[in-house]
């Protein structure tokens, strides 16, 4: 979700919360947004977001990775209001 524009920019669905799910959502967002650079990408510290494949994709897209401290319950709060 783009917190400035309040819209969904990338989407992926699965029955499991695996790294492929977030990688596919990031790829979708990247294409839909016109391949931007310098984006700040915020997430929690879930294993899928910390995976080497996901982190490599962030670097490839020239995004800035932002992660909250461990145990921060507010990471998903913006999605609750959507």
From TrEMBL:
Domain Integrase catalytic: 1-82
Annotated organism of origin: Clostridium simiarum
Name by which UniProt lists this protein: DDE-type integrase/transposase/recombinase
Superkingdom classification of source: Bacteria
One Pfam family of this chain: rve
């Amino acid at each position: 979700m783009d917190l400035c524009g309040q819209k969904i920019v990338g989407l992926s669905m699965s029955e499991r919360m695996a790294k492929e799910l977030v990688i596919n959502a990031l790829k979708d967002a990247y294409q839909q947004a016109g391949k931007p650079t310098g984006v700040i990408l915020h997430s929690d510290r879930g294993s899928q977001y910390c995976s080497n494949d996901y982190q490599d994709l962030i670097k490839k897209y020239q995004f800035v990775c932002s992660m909250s401290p461990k145990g921060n319950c507010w990471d998903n709060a913006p999605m609750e209001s959507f």
